[in-house]
TrEMBL record:
The active site is at D57. This is tRNA pseudouridine synthase A. Belongs to the tRNA pseudouridine synthase TruA family. It catalyses: uridine(38/39/40) in tRNA = pseudouridine(38/39/40) in tRNA. GO terms for biological process: tRNA pseudouridine synthesis. The gene is truA. Formation of pseudouridine at positions 38, 39 and 40 in the anticodon stem and loop of transfer RNAs. Residues 8-108, 148-257 form the Pseudouridine synthase I TruA alpha/beta domain.
Length: 257
């Protein structure tokens, strides 16, 4: 059967994440995967399982989530771009559709991901159009955050930044970049109160980016020192790290293959 690769953008506010909920859930809430599968089922008359590159949590957004699914030959010829544009909710958009080699897997073929996290630095207000996409922190010591970010870059055991609820046991990851307002995602001229951080790694643990962001903000608020980040890493204990940042500021930005 032909394998179809799609790239999906969405506003995660109304959804409990990417992944469909287990059948045992009495009143399942809407998910991104579920909405896409609903469209495929309506057109083909059979359940088509969609496999995502990662599981974004409840309230998390995406610029370019990648997913794939397999279809019988007769359905592969459908103009799926048009179908998705017509039938998906307004807060989910399939931005590209292509037939891909059947050895491709949206999750296991990935060699890295990039997430962005957006902070709002003005305590007086948040622009209503930006409210669903930012964490209002107020002013921060950016230099302290940069120093802490340097300690988090490279290969480390990130156990202190993994939340419970996962069966992953190997917690070593390579963080290739933590930076703010990089050229491919800069908005400072038009939105000077926004600060966009980019986190790029070979892989991420459960809610790892939100935990890292919470730690950097704690540095920016002088609640912890940048130097203490190394101690948090060494502890390999989630209880010693600052609180998890809210979901609303997080966005899956890119998946690398």
């Amino acid at each position: 059967m032909p394998r179809i690769k799609i790239t999906v953008a969405y506003i995660g506010t109304r959804y409990v994440g990417w992944q469909i909920q287990p059948p045992k859930v009495e009143h399942p809430q809407p998910t991104i995967q579920g909405e896409i599968e609903k469209v495929l089922t309506a057109v083909t008359g059979t359940l088509v399982r969609v496999h995502g590159s990662g599981r974004t949590d409840s309230g998390v957004h995406a610029d370019a989530q990648v997913a794939h699914f397999d279809l019988p030959e007769k359905w592969a010829r459908v103009n799926w771009q048009k179908v998705f544009t017509t039938k998906l909710p307004h807060d989910i958009a399939v931005t590209s559709v292509e037939t891909i080699d059947d050895e491709f897997h949206s999750r296991f073929s990935s060699i890295g991901k990039s997430y962005t996290y957006t902070l709002w630095l003005n305590n007086k207000y948040v622009l209503p159009a930006r409210y669903p996409f930012v964490w209002k922190t107020g002013p921060l010591d950016i230099a302290a955050m940069e120093t802490a970010a340097e300690s988090l870059t490279g290969e480390h055991d990130f156990a202190s930044f993994q939340n419970i609820g996962t069966d992953i046991t190997r917690t070593v990851r390579t963080m290739t970049r933590i930076s703010h307002n990089c050229p491919d995602y800069a908005q400072r001229e038009s939105l000077p109160d926004e600060l966009v951080w980019t986190f790029e790694a070979t892989g991420f643990l459960k809610q790892m980016v939100r935990n890292l962001m919470g730690t950097l903000v704690a540095c920016g608020r002088h609640k912890i020192t940048p130097e203490s980040v190394l101690d948090i890493l060494a502890a390999k204990d989630r209880t010693v790290a600052p609180a998890t940042a809210p979901a609303c500021g997080l966005c899956m930005h890119k998946v690398f293959y």
